[in-house]
Automatic annotation (TrEMBL):
Species of the source: Roseovarius marisflavi
One GO term (biological process): phospholipid transport
Classification via Pfam families: MlaD (PF02470)
InterPro entries on file: ABC_MlaD, Mce/MlaD, MlaD_Phospholipid_Transporter
Mce/MlaD domain residues: 37-114
Protein name: Phospholipid/cholesterol/gamma-HCH transport system substrate-binding protein
């Protein structure tokens, strides 16, 4: 009977540690809500490397995450919706770009704040955007030495 109590106790400890780990992992990856957020949207010519859960950063600090990326059938542009933490006011002349962490790093959405004294409200769309840049096309332009990437 003593062994049975020990097994139940050890099983309970393992279960508690597993639940704690899941809660920690969800919080650090942004899968759970750590605070209240508001939603903004933007339209990109190319949204390569951006998917649901991609970081949204301001000055290199994570301030939100992408919640959806869809194709707008009317404009053939990628429409992205993302959240920003409450308390972080984004000026209404700000721009949004898809940036890369480096050659082998992933992409993230970068908010480049403007200087306006007015701020975006929840649900607003940011007009000034820059899509992702294809590394392959840049390398082809560099190697070929031409504007369109074709050999001379």
């Amino acid at each position: 009977m003593s062994e049975n109590k020990t097994e139940v106790l050890v099983g309970g400890v393992v279960l508690a540690v597993a639940l704690g780990f899941l809660a920690y992992a969800g919080k650090t990856t942004g899968m759970t809500r750590g605070g209240s957020e508001y939603q903004l949207s933007a339209s990109f010519r190319s949204a390569d490397g951006v998917s649901v859960g991609t970081d949204v950063r301001l000055a290199g600090v994570k301030v939100g995450r992408v919640t959806s990326v869809d194709l707008d059938p009317a404009t053939y542009r990628a429409s992205a919706k993302f959240t920003v933490l409450d308390g972080i006011n984004v000026p209404d002349d700000s721009a949004v770009a898809i940036s890369s962490e480096g050659l082998l790093g992933g992409n993230y959405v970068e908010i480049m704040p403007g200087g306006s004294p007015f701020y975006f409200a929840a649900g607003d769309e940011i007009e000034f955007t820059q899509g992702s840049v294809s590394l392959v096309s840049l390398l082809m332009k560099f190697v070929s030495g031409s504007e369109d990437g074709a050999a001379k």
